[in-house]
Amino acid sequence: MAFVGTINSDVHFRNRIINGDMRIDQRAAGANSKPIGDGYDGMVDRYRTVFTGSSKFTIGQNLDSISTLPSGFINCMGIKPSGNAVSSSDYNTIFQKIEGTNVDDLGWGTANAKTITLSFWVRSSNTGTFGGAITNNAFNRSYPFTYTINTANNWEYETITIPGDTTGTWLSNNSTGMTVVWSLGTGSTYSGTANTWAASNFYSATSATNIMGNSTNTWYLTGVQLEPGSTATPFEHRPFGMELQLCQRYYCKTYNLSVVAGTADGSGSIGGSGTGNLYRPIVNWAYPVQMRATPTITFYSPQTGTIGKARDDNSGADLDATSYRTGTSGTRWYPVATPASGNDIFAQLVASIEL
């Protein structure tokens, strides 16, 4: 089951990042995508884009079928910009938001705030000093950091040690406790002095490298780990099933793992039979794990992939569907129109409650 609550880092879960090795890709199933705007669409699990403008990147698990990876890793997240200038008020970033229940032991916002270390493997077509930041949920406390890529198109291991913030508000509930930001091109408005806590919303360090201006540039990331202490330890490889469940706390689907939501595919779909006389089939879906909070439910027709629809297999028609009594452990759903008695009604469902 997914982990929820205070972490004993001496025993398990040194790494507070989920899907740090980029293995889980429920939304895109390994395909490249071009996110239209901020959000999780097309991203490997638990990572999101946050940027000004629209359609600024092509993103994918193992983008461009990259075959060279650091030892011990078989996946990465790759990004290729579309070739856009960066103004002073622009930002182009990758986030991972960490749930407060998974960092509450760090004591940030108190006199006992613990030091953390962020480590990761990165590769880029560009060299130079790159930027990122740690921020709180309100984006009024941030710690810009830098890391250096010395050789183009070569995997390099980076470690950044960050002193715990003794001020500010850092949530310890099921909202965002902490956000890790990697900048790919951020203007001066959202850039601050490196290695210093600020009462501002900074996504990068001042004068960090910008890769956004050339569509042939690339940037790859894997092996991300955030842990208490001032020393980076070897990457914590968790079992695939465990990592998947950690991701499913925020996003899960009835589709097979390798099938993108919205595909015309009946494998894994759930449903029931109509009984006529105004009675509709009521179908229960128990999620794989307890979700972070009550999720949004989205339907897809298994036959056509049409969003918002279930499928009447007997009549060959897509039907509107609705969910009710949705909670953190499951939901119930039924077709809006009453199907004929004995007709089989099926749907694919997605539940999402990202940070």
CA-atom Rg in angstroms: 22 Å
Q: What name goes with the CATH superfamily of the largest domain?
A: Galactose-binding domain-like
> What best-fitting shape do the alpha-carbon axes yield?
globular
Write down the overall mean pLDDT.
Answer: 94
Quaternary organization:
single chain
Largest sheet properties: 8 strands, antiparallel
Percentage of helical residues? under 10%
Q: How much of the sequence is in beta strands?
A: 25-35%
What is the CATH topology classification name of the largest domain?
Answer: Jelly Rolls
CATH architecture of the largest domain: Sandwich
Query: Can you count the helices?
Result: 1
**Secondary-structure element string:** EEEEEEEEEEEEHEEEEEEEE
Structural class: mainly beta
Termini separation (Å)? 19 Å
Give me the count of strands: 20
Instruction: List low-confidence stretches.
Output: 1-11
Number of structural domains:
2
CATH uppermost class of the largest domain: Mainly Beta
